[in-house]
Amino acid sequence: MAKRKMKVKRQVLTEDELLAQALVPEDEQPYKVPENWVWVRLLSGFNNVTSSFKKIQQKDYLGEGQFAVVDQGKELIGGYTNEEELLYGGKLPIIVFGDHTRIIKYIDFPFAQGADGVKLLHPNTFVNSKFFYYSMQNIDIPDLGYRRHFPLFPHFKFPLPPITEQQRIVECIERLFEKLDRAKELVQIAIDSFETRKLAILHKAFTGELTAKWRKKNGVGMESWEEKKLGDFCFVTKLAGFEYTKNIAPNLSDTGIPLFKGKNIQSGELVLEFESFIPKDISDELPRSKLTKKCLLTPYVGAIGNIAIFNAEFEAHLGSNVGKIELLNNLSTEEFLLYFLQSNFGYTELTRQKKATAQESISIQAIRECNIKIPSFSEQQEIIRILDSLLEKEQQVRELCVVIEKIDMMKKVILARAFRGELGTNKPKDGRALEVLEKILEG
């Protein structure tokens, strides 16, 4: 006998219940805001209008097309489609939240929804859509890796001023952000110009052009360059999954031997800020993945092609998703390998076997299979000498990268001040946000 489907009667909340559900009690408010503002729960600020049916798989994206596809990737537009029936049909503007990536986008143009991990959030009438967008950017959403982050939303809250003050805050934020974006653009142009020259120099180094005069002077020909695979003369390894599960995960702590993760390798430099540590005795049980002086580190998930040399004077250990490259003999040097892997030749070799997943990845075996042409040890030393001389301005470029980080930090400071009512735009005569909220809930 077929089972009857039970109809669940939806409970209708009273105005007072709706208001209590939206407001944050005083003892749960993170900090004080102006008296005419209120704290509200994030879930009360939007309607979730995500479609379970109108989704486009990444493999079906077009390089060009009539309509944009918006997904959870870093770029505003992930691809294109010509399928008009898949367009989002609700009201614009809308906020797109990357459930896995925590990317937040403000969309005010026709678009189709990318599949997997995309949440479409339409701001409620008591909150300015741009104000809600910046409010979400101001929320510290913890990084759960590739797990979904939307289940955290019931714990989040944001300050709500009157609607006229919301608009003034948006205008002030965007005016300040515009100046910062212009400064960032000029810095990025300088960085890109240097990187273009650097790649051109590295290209000459690994085609033999850079040391052509040296070879002529020393009676050496290009036939002296030998083609090898990285695995022929390097030990390439990672932290094994069973090692992490058995030895590391149960023993993670706030002190001890630091673990290097992908985020610790940025722009060819090591970032010595750590989140995870293990006791020394555990590290000693895992000698294969302990870091050795002058070994090369590279992520094999995420920022593929990012390489740095470990020159630190302390003990450290491989974390997840980072590979270690160590020389096995005197065929080459770490500096020569670093320059090669930073060149277009090295990047092409590293990425030719990358896997098409939500996060780029390659296998450790793919790193071992990288092809490299190696000149004599003497010519390698000459290449390093010339490159060191030509690229001496690299430190200045790294300092420019710090400027960009400072600009991004300034944006966070501006947002923090904006949502504390510290931009000097608040006007008590606007009335109280609570009154507006009450009227809307009455309707």
Summarize the model shown.
This protein has helices spanning 15-22, 129-138, 163-207, 212-218, 230-233, 241-248, 280-284, 334-342, 344-351, 364-368, 377-390, 394-418, 433-442, and strands at residues 38-41, 46-48, 67-70, 79-81, 94-98, 104-107, 111-113, 118-123, 157-160, 226-229, 234-238, 257-260, 265-266, 269-270, 277-278, 296-299, 308-309, 317-318, 322-327, 371-374. By secondary structure, the chain is α+β, with helices and mostly antiparallel strands.
Overall radius of gyration: 27 Å
Strand order of the largest sheet: 2-8-5-6
Find the CATH superfamily of one domain: DNA methylase specificity domains
At CATH's second level, what is the architecture of one domain?
Alpha-Beta Complex
The CATH class assignment of one domain is Alpha Beta
Tally of strands:
20
Report the portion of residues in β strands: 15-25%
C-alpha geometry: elongated
Specify the biggest β-sheet: 4 strands, antiparallel
What is the typical, i.e. mean, pLDDT? 86
Number of helices: 13
CATH fold-level name of one domain: Adenine-n6-DNA-methyltransferase TaqI, Chain A, domain 2
